[in-house]
Amino acid sequence: MKERGGGKEPTVDERYNQWKSLVPVLYDWLANHNLVWPSLSCRWGPQLEQATYKNRQRLYLSEQARSSFWKKGNPVKGILSSLGKGWIGQDTDGSVPNTLVIANCEIVKPRVAAAEHISQFNEEARSPFVKKFKTIIHPGEVSICSVNRIRELPQNSKIVATHTDSPDVLIWDVEAQPNRHAVLGAQDSRPDLILTGHQDNAEFALAMCPTEPLVLSGGKDKLVVLWSIHDHISSLAVDPGPAKSPGSGGSGLKNASKVGGSNDKPVDSPTIGPRGTYQGHEDTVEDVQFCPSSAQEFCSVGDDSCLILWDARTGSSPVLKVEKAHDADLHCVDWNPHDVNLILTG
């Protein structure tokens, strides 16, 4: 956006300084946590504790290696505010493995922090409000794979799904997984479940059903794939006893699968195939979303500029296809939780 009067467009530094001056007005609270590597994905986990002046909330960070693109020593700043929920993903230079980091974050409540304190943050500092809790070494070729998406299961927030540069969706019980040290040559953590069914890499489109333990994914194979993980998560999400994770060495499951499309040795994790595979897109599927009130209805968008609505009860063909919903690729879609007649695309 150009300044009034036909002036030059402000530089990035000028825009940043303008934003920084408005921080006390825009936010009830802000903490800056300087990250070592650039980030790709962002999402919060569940709230863990409530106190008088601040809450403690789970935060997920995925550190991802892309040595061919990112250069070491190029820090990026991660900023946390009390306005929403998100998980953060990072890239490394390939000297450390891909990791899924579980952290606990203290969120100061509204109208508690002083405006002077909010505005005087240090961009190069690591926030004392963010404390690492556990590290999972994510499978995948370090130089090419990155954890692009993290989604939590609404029925049990300790179970999350991750999308990387591979055809598989990985399911993790973040509480049962053992803590690992991210050093060069470290063995990958073993997912609690691997969802198979894509014929090509599925990198970004990922959603969890709000009403049932269903997972939805889209990929470069132009497919939308649906899984039910109810039978496999029953021991994780329903059984009140201590959960056992394949990564802890406590799994007796025999199925195995390679993860990440690399030369990794097979991991001792169970695999399941899809409940349904849906064809209708003519290019990569970039995002998917469930209907908030129905486990059988969902939608998808892709690089073919189409919005497609699906109903699992009617078969694998689209129920409704909006051709050229935009004049370019569609990368995101969301379904209004308050009015199911409204869908937003971008």
TrEMBL record:
<dbReference type="Pfam" id="PF00400">
    <property type="entry name" value="WD40"/>
</dbReference>
<dbReference type="InterPro" id="IPR022052">
    <property type="entry name" value="Histone-bd_RBBP4-like_N"/>
</dbReference>
<dbReference type="GO" id="GO:0006325">
    <property type="term" value="P:chromatin organization"/>
</dbReference>
<keyword id="KW-0853">WD repeat</keyword>
<dbReference type="InterPro" id="IPR001680">
    <property type="entry name" value="WD40_rpt"/>
</dbReference>
<protein>
    <recommendedName>
        <fullName>Histone-binding protein RBBP4-like N-terminal domain-containing protein</fullName>
    </recommendedName>
</protein>
<dbReference type="InterPro" id="IPR015943">
    <property type="entry name" value="WD40/YVTN_repeat-like_dom_sf"/>
</dbReference>
<dbReference type="InterPro" id="IPR050459">
    <property type="entry name" value="WD_repeat_RBAP46/RBAP48/MSI1"/>
</dbReference>
<comment type="similarity">
    <text>Belongs to the WD repeat RBAP46/RBAP48/MSI1 family.</text>
</comment>
<dbReference type="InterPro" id="IPR036322">
    <property type="entry name" value="WD40_repeat_dom_sf"/>
</dbReference>
<feature type="repeat" description="WD">
    <location>
        <begin position="278"/>
        <end position="320"/>
    </location>
</feature>
<feature type="domain" description="Histone-binding protein RBBP4-like N-terminal">
    <location>
        <begin position="14"/>
        <end position="66"/>
    </location>
</feature>
<keyword id="KW-0677">Repeat</keyword>
<keyword id="KW-0156">Chromatin regulator</keyword>
<feature type="region of interest" description="Disordered">
    <location>
        <begin position="237"/>
        <end position="280"/>
    </location>
</feature>
<dbReference type="Pfam" id="PF12265">
    <property type="entry name" value="CAF1C_H4-bd"/>
</dbReference>
